[in-house]
Input
Amino acid sequence: MEIHHHQYEAVIVGAGGAGLSAAVYAARGGANVAVISKLYPPRSHTGAAQGGINAALGNLEEDHWEWHMFDTVKGSDYLGDQEAIELMVRKAPEIVYQLEHLGLPFDRTPEGKIMQRPFGGHTRNYGEAPVKRSCHAADRTGHMILQTLYQNCIKEGITFFDEFHVLDLLLEDGVCRGAVAYEIATGDLHVFHSKAVLFATGGCGRIFSFTSNAHALTGDGLASVYRRGVPLEDMEFFQFHPTGLYPLGILITEAVRGEGGVLRNDQGERFMERYAPTIKDLAPRDLVSRAIYLEVREGRGIGGKDYVHLDATQLGQAIIKAKLPEIADFCRTYVGVDPVKQPIPVKPTVHYAMGGIPTDIDAQVIVDDQGTPVAGLYAAGECACVSVHGANRLGCNSLLDIVVFGQRGGVRLAEYVKGADFAPLPPEPEAWSVSQIERFLKGPGDHQEKIGALRAEMQELMMRDVGVFRTEEPLRQALAGLKALKARYQEAEIDDRGHRFNTDLLEAIELGNLLELAEVAAAGALNRQESRGAHYREDFPQRDDANWLKHTLACKVAGQIEFSYKPVSITKFQPKERKY
Ligand SMILES: Cc1cc2nc3c(=O)[nH]c(=O)nc-3n(C[C@H](O)[C@H](O)[C@H](O)COP(=O)(O)OP(=O)(O)OC[C@H]3O[C@@H](n4cnc5c(N)ncnc54)[C@H](O)[C@@H]3O)c2cc1C
Output
């Protein structure tokens, strides 16, 4: 294996919406930047986002940033940091216009304004009724954002290392020094010496079996910083999106309900009227997912099975064709259902990690409740926790988050590298990465444990014991099961021992990351003895502000997970009972 060396002032890991926004603004700020991505950039998961991006433009009806802020805070079950939320929602209109000026083809109203539609939990006048806030380009909004940003990166002349898989962060004595990446085409290692690194590696939904997340969403960035002693924040909060296409888990965007689709049980009843009388099917995702599970539990799943119907037949052919072409295609192709004529079978699917690498509002990674930063280390997008989504994210707030905080991260990165020196690299910076690769390429070959089988066991275990409803005993079993899986992982082997395009090797490395994160999520879920947002403990069904209105920080100390806490920033809206 050859080792190559590079030097850039700033390295951005990840080329989704967050990484590309950061890259554009870091380059414009004068930084010499390299973007490293394990996927070819336009294949990043941002490109799969369907529904839209929020901004209180008020193009179709009255709207205000204060309403957007309130909805986001309430949606977060009061765990979101209000300083960050205020910044994000106030910036939203400007961000949408910036994207438009960069070339994003939004849908239009007849008079030519940007078209908007309602999404779950977004309301008029502090909860009165759903409001049209999500700006969209049909059901391909993420695709358009990603293409637009990528074109602008090319225009800025940014250097890309495509299909390079980052294995390790170089961090010593609290100072970031670069990263180590594996070149997928050759099997060579590349040491990137830099003054700063920004992680924008996206989510980690692949710790579960039934998920809307792409195969590549294995939380590599989260695991890399965690292994180097940086804590992870609020990892117990995982969003289940109510409408995953049954039986595959592919996402059916909330825009179907935004456009007028409704959920029905086996009796044809529009059951959300019982759970959220005011905004019904447009309640936030945590509530709707729990409602579906309860309907199924009480025997009202379709044909007694574990799914319900999403009925969009009343929308008619013209609306479905114009506004939801992609999802109509998914339904026809994958399950042979034509949504114009038949209801869509759906079941909650694992969708979004609210937790992540703790950052401040400038995307700087912070390690404690005092806001102490790690010199030169940044994170933005789904892998970060700033925290604008708290315990439950509202639809269309992630695309906003990645562009707002990606951009702020890029600006800050450029300022930081101007005033910083290159800290020296540690001796043998590639040592840990080499050991990981050699372990798999030079194992004894007796094939005791297979990576694919271990991954499937982990995903099933997480789904069963760390899912929508949680209780102490299953969570304890999950932790014991994960510990056993981690031990077996140490014995696992791969078939392909080659150097070129060795996807066996990459999947083995990714599984190591997933196991680490699954354990943090399960331990966090056991630790938090209350129910808040997406984290629902049947043995502690109430929200407990007296004891748990705080962020969790999970740190790896001598191989064990240690918890500490961070206060929530509350500036405008005091916690109240959350009803819809
Ligand atoms: C199906 C689907 C639909 C969605 N719809 C919406 C929506 O309508 N509105 C909304 O607001 N949100 C939506 N979301 C959520 C939103 O799309 C994501 O949270 C967001 O796009 C994440 O962006 P990101 O830039 O953080 O990460 P991603 O876009 O996931 O990009 C991650 C990048 O990191 C790179 N990477 C990862 N690991 C490594 C490594 N080890 N080495 C090098 N590179 C690495 C990848 O190559 C990739 O470029 C949706 C999500 C899904 C799954």
Observations:
- The chain has a mean pLDDT of 96.
- Residues 85 and 388 are 5 Å apart (CA to CA).
- The longest helix spans residues 503-527.
- The radius of gyration is 23 Å.
